[in-house]
Design goal:
Elements: H1 3-10, H2 18-22, H3 25-42, H4 44-49, H5 51-71, H6 76-88, H7 90-102, H8 107-120, H9 134-139, H10 141-148, E1 160-165, H11 168-180, E2 185-190, H12 197-211, E3 215-221, H13 224-227, H14 233-238, E4 243-247, E5 265-269, E6 273-277, E7 294-296, E8 299-304, H15 307-319, E9 342-348, H16 356-367, E10 371-375, H17 383-394, E11 398-404, H18 410-417, H19 420-426, E12 429-433, E13 436-438, E14 442-445, E15 449-453, H20 459-464, E16 467-473, H21 478-489, E17 492-494, H22 497-501, H23 505-515
Parallel strand pairs: 2-3, 3-4, 7-13, 10-11, 11-12
Antiparallel strand pairs: 1-8, 2-5, 5-6, 6-8, 9-16, 10-14, 12-17, 14-15, 15-16
Length: about 525
């Protein structure tokens, strides 16, 4: 038995807690819908005898709820979804609307996140020299930095080397190499951690680094407690000397706070190196385990000044649950041996009113002069983003999107296809990756701009998750990103009108039905 297996053996196997499932938001929604059905069936006869009074009360109640709905600050597509729910189930629909809209349970975390943002707004220099570079100003990147300064501390940096990884395997190799070099601290924040070869290799290095005096912190999303890890995982990690916590662990409390998941993937080493992208810490991400054919992913590694932004992002999330927040290790990175262009790391928080991820994607689409090439696992669009994609194509921009050929979620696959006809009519070209599943979240445009990060083109990423990404302008690796897109394209089939006509009836029906409630998914 090797060292990896010894360490994994010390940690508990996954346990699915019944209470954690029972008190999830899905269970609450299902319970309310079931309650509506039971009430309707039980009181049908009585309703007939009291029809006029009940009808009047029901209509008055529905009017008040709809009036409240239109006053809410909400995406127009989401309002239509809620109107449908209220039409079908006015009473429980209203309860569910108030439950989600008032978002009781996360007001405390919203306040805490705002306090930490204000506390750290001056820790990084927002007015960096890079903002005044003529190329940055011409590209509009300085405008993005001004916009992002309203939602957090996200400067644009020069003096940063960016390396692109076209798959999880290459990112994993570089990650292991950099972890071995750690001397001061290692910060890890991942949506998914799952026991296996990949996590075993990483964990063995982390345990060794702790013995060498390196501070190691690991944070993962609380949904792992249902899907991959046991609820006492932080305690077991502490036995190895690793500081560990779950973000928003699933506990028996009715709270919409648990709807806001930490979907970010961040690794910071000594404040000098940072990794970001779509790759989680589980074997399917490096194709050691096959789930949906070949797993296509992407990531970037930064060395230099821009790493400070990812250090600050991690500390923000870590300190949300700390009574005395500490900002140690927010240090000046070493200068890279080489660098090109400009780098702007950024985060997107679901607890404010800014749709940062969507805004940056739309900015790229609106400023493009030649092409915008996209890889995303999901395509569940609101009206604004769909309009941005179609407008870019209609004004002559080569807009291409690569999606999975083997989906991980059949519902999401069916939903994506509901957008195909309108996008293709406008000139957007859509492709499906035949070897398997595309998990990359990549935008690349005009050979000079790119985004690699965690933000999918769906409601959950754009509205409901904590996310992060790396915006790059004229970095050397942009040519590698475009090369990867074109090489991936050779393994894809193009979606044509014939493809749409030959879509299974069950997929069409599923997509049409799910589109009615897409903003809630």
């Amino acid at each position: 038995m090797d060292k990896n297996e010894d360490i994994i053996r010390l940690l508990p196997k996954r346990k699915k807690g019944l209470l954690r499932i029972v008190f999830s938001r899905f269970f609450v929604m299902s319970l309310l819908i079931l309650l509506q059905i039971i009430l309707t069936l039980s009181f049908t006869t009585w309703l007939y005898t009291q029809f006029s009074l009940i009808y009047a009360i029901d209509r008055a109640f529905a009017f008040l709820v709809i009036f409240y709905l239109f006053k809410c600050e909400m995406d127009s597509t989401a309002k239509l979804t809620w109107l449908l729910i209220l039409a079908v189930a006015p009473i429980t629909g209203a309860i569910l609307l108030l439950y989600t809209k008032h978002e009781f349970g996360h007001n405390r975390i919203r306040k805490r996140a705002l306090e930490l943002t204000n506390e750290t707004k001056d820790m990084l220099p927002l007015q960096t020299e890079a903002m005044f570079d003529p190329e940055v100003q011409r590209s509009g990147t300085d405008d993005l930095c001004k916009y992002l300064s309203r939602t957090g501390c996200f400067p644009v940096f020069a003096n940063t080397d960016a390396t692109y990884f076209p798959d999880g395997e290459k990112k994993f190799e570089a990650m292991l190499e950099e972890l071995q070099k750690a001397e001061k601290f290692i910060y890890m924040e991942y949506f998914i951690i799952d026991e296996g070869y990949m996590w075993g290799r990483v964990l063995s290095i982390l345990a060794e680094k702790v013995r060498q005096g390196v501070e190691v912190r690991v944070m993962y999303d609380g949904m792992c407690e249902i899907t991959t890890l046991s609820h006492d995982y932080p305690k077991r990690m502490a036995e190895l000397g690793i500081k560990c916590k779950a973000f928003a662990p699933i506990r028996p409390v009715f709270s919409t706070y648990y709807n806001y998941r930490d979907h970010r993937k961040i690794l910071v080493i000594d404040g000098n190196v940072a990794f970001n992208g779509g790759v989680n810490l589980a074997d399917e991400y490096i194709n050691r385990k096959e789930r949906f054919g070949h797993w296509k992913d992407a990531a970037v590694m930064l060395k230099g000044d821009a790493v400070r932004s990812f250090t600050l992002m991690f500390l923000h999330m870590w300190n949300i649950t700390e009574t005395e927040p500490c900002w140690d290790n927010l240090i000046e990175p070493k200068s890279p041996e080489k660098s090109s262009g400009f780098v702007l790391p950024y985060a997107d928080c679901p607890l404010d009113d800014d749709k940062v991820g969507e805004s940056i994607y739309m900015d790229i689409l609106s400023r493009a002069t030649t092409y915008v090439h996209i890889m995303t696992p999901y395509l569940i669009l609101d009206g604004e983003l769909e309009s941005a994609l179609t407008f870019a194509a209609k004004r002559g921009i080569d807009v291409r999107i690569i999606l999975p050929g083997v989906p991980d979620k059949k519902g999401a696959y069916a939903l994506a296809r509901t957008h195909f006809r309108s996008l293709m009519k406008a000139g957007v070209k859509i492709y499906e990756y035949t070897p398997g599943f595309v998990h990359s979240k990549v935008f690349v445009s005009d050979d000079e701009k790119a985004v690699v990060g965690t933000i999918n083109l769906d409601y959950r990423s754009l509205y409901h998750h904590f996310e992060c990404a790396t915006y790059m302008f004229r970095t050397d690796c942009i040519k590698d990103i475009e090369k990867d897109f074109n090489e991936t394209l050779t393994l894809c089939r193009m979606v044509t009108p014939d493809t749409l006509r030959n879509t299974k009836l069950s997929v069409r029906i599923t997509g049409s039905l799910l589109k009615l409630i897409a903003p809630l998914m």
